[in-house]
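Rather than argue in generalities, we have chosen a single entry, letters for residues, whole numbers for local backbone shapes, without further comment.
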Amino acid sequence: FLPPCFINSSQKPPPPSGPVSPVELIVDRVDSSSSESCDLHVTCRTHNAHISSTVSCFDRVCIQEGGERPEVTTSGASLQVHLLNNVIICNHSNQVHRTHDLIHAEQLCYQSTGTIVTPVFVLKGRDLLLKLDADPPERVLIVDWKINKTVTLRIASNGKPNVLRNSTGGFEFPENKFSVILKNVQEVDSGVYSAEAGTLQRDKLAEYKVTVQGPVSPVELIVDRVDNSSESCDLHVTCRTHNSNINSTFSCVDWFCSQEGGERPEVTTSGASLQVYLSNNVIICNHSNQVHWTHDFDITEHLCPSNPAEHLCSDHAGSVFLVKMVVFSVGLIIMVSAVITVHLVDFKKHQQRNGCQTRHAAREESSHLKVTF
């Protein structure tokens, strides 16, 4: 027989472990009151959930207004939209997997005419493909690739390149005409890359704002204090890296936990995002930039019982176990005593029987001797 608390404990949802679905960041509306300010209304969505937020930009400085708190999807993952260095990031993650989409706020607010500058974020050490937005006009025989307004590479229409200044890891040229691959990019390779037609008009054919980022440092989730009572418990935690930290408190009552403070991400000195949040009763400490992600987590049920009945379960289980051990021990002692008693009685009977036989043999031997003499 199992007490009700053991039966109910199976109803606790396990933490998610599979990959999360792709995510999409959609710009619903752009409200621009002047050339210096605008409001971006965006939606971060998956196939079965969404979250909305507004980002306001003034003089190329953007802030987020609402939507910072993550939403838990039907699959138990976390869906969130947040701002990092004027980049709007739509993030869908659980403890083992992450998908994301992003848009540069400046691209939407301040790029009204001309060629659109495409923001590109790439992990240090990777290769980066740069290509034209569309095929150039037939009259274009040469395309110049510029890095920060300096002509670095010139490609002829026959595909033959002329490298004027090399990049850190060098160039590679794919089959696509006028395209180029930057090899083994480093932070110093960050900048504006533009392709211009080799004509008098110098028409701009493509432009990329490339940001090379290194991997973020490991992160650690620390439980500073646990305030436990018969009805609830409060968890005071710190999410920290080697040079930054963020604090938060989580309150749990009857298997349900909520976060109290600390939802807004902190920007570290390296420009990454540090955040602690709750997803499916799992506390997640997340350190990320646009190209890399590290995290640490702990399950609230491991830190304090989320149901007061669990205290009763533990006490009841301990009492039942103790009673069973006492009964088993007493029964074992009785069995051993009975076996010993039986053996002692049998041993005494055996001794008595042997004694009688010895005396009878002695009398017979004595009689035989008398007859002989």
